[in-house]
Specification:
Shape of chain B: globular
Number of strands of chain B: 11
Distance between the termini of chain A: 35 Å
Largest interface: A-B, 24 and 20 residues
Radius of gyration of chain B: 13 Å
Radius of gyration of chain A: 13 Å
Oligomer: heterodimer
Number of strands of chain A: 10
Shape of chain A: globular
Order of helices and strands of chain B: EEEEEEEEEEE
Strand content of chain A: over 45%
Strand content of chain B: over 45%
């Protein structure tokens, strides 16, 4: 099973800042099979990025994904108040799926 | 629009079984897998398994193998997840999600509380 490790656990930033979230895999992941989700309190997760770098429907262009192999990054270029949430990476491999443990993005 | 509507909250005694439903609408049910993901209070997301809504084939996380059953009824566009022999650490919100490689539409979740 591929283990995804996200860092940092908590990121404290201000609106307007740039956020960089990391997701590291225990073995190589196909870029096609790496996604990012956003979850706000009391809500279901929402798909942000699929295929490592493709924005899902209606996702603003301030969200971008990059990376390959074992290292992937989610970048939010200029934080808006509604972006403060928990972010999860997720991978698919061999018919099995795993999530990272999450990064909480909080207001500084 | 595409929707996944889950059944209501459940309270179960340890050792019992719980069955959660996920009724879909707005798309052809058999075009997408249904996955189940759970989230314990204050914790992260944990993938449980998926069902091929066309064939009924299933695949489970090792964590749940032997305790979880996933079924579907295409005639009413509904998928089901049943967890047996529940324990207190099975207390969580259980989500169904549509998808293949990624999960693009999610249900709102079903809170399952296991308490004696």
């Amino acid at each position: 099973e591929i283990v995804l490790t996200q860092s940092p656990g908590t990121l404290s930033l201000s609106p307007g800042d740039r956020a960089t979230l990391s997701c590291r895999a225990s073995q190589s992941v196909s870029s096609s099979f790496l996604a990012w989700y956003q979850q706000k309190p009391g809500q279901a997760p929402r798909l942000l990025i699929y295929g490592a770098s493709n924005r899902a429907t209606d996702i603003p262009d301030r969200f971008s994904g990059s990376g390959s192999g074992t290292d992937f990054t989610l970048t939010i270029s200029r934080l808006e108040p509604e972006d403060f949430a928990v972010y999860y990476c997720q991978q698919y491999g061999g018919s099995l799926y795993t999530f990272g443990q999450g990064t909480k993005l909080e207001i500084k | 629009q595409v929707q996944l509507v889950q059944s209501g909250a459940e309270v179960k005694r340890p050792g019992a079984s719980v069955k959660v439903s996920c009724k879909t609408s707005g798309y052809l049910f058999t075009d997408y897998q249904i996955h189940w993901v759970r989230q314990a209070p204050g914790q992260g997301l944990e993938w449980m398994g998926w069902i091929n809504t066309n064939s009924g084939d299933t695949k489970f996380s090792q964590t749940f193998r032997g305790r979880v059953t996933m079924t579907r009824d295409p005639s009413i566009s509904t998928a089901y997840m049943e967890l047996s022999r529940v324990r207190s650490d099975d207390t969580a919100v259980y989500y169904c999600a549509r998808g293949a490689v990624v999960f693009d539409i999610w249900g709102l979740g079903t809170l399952v509380t296991v308490s004696s």
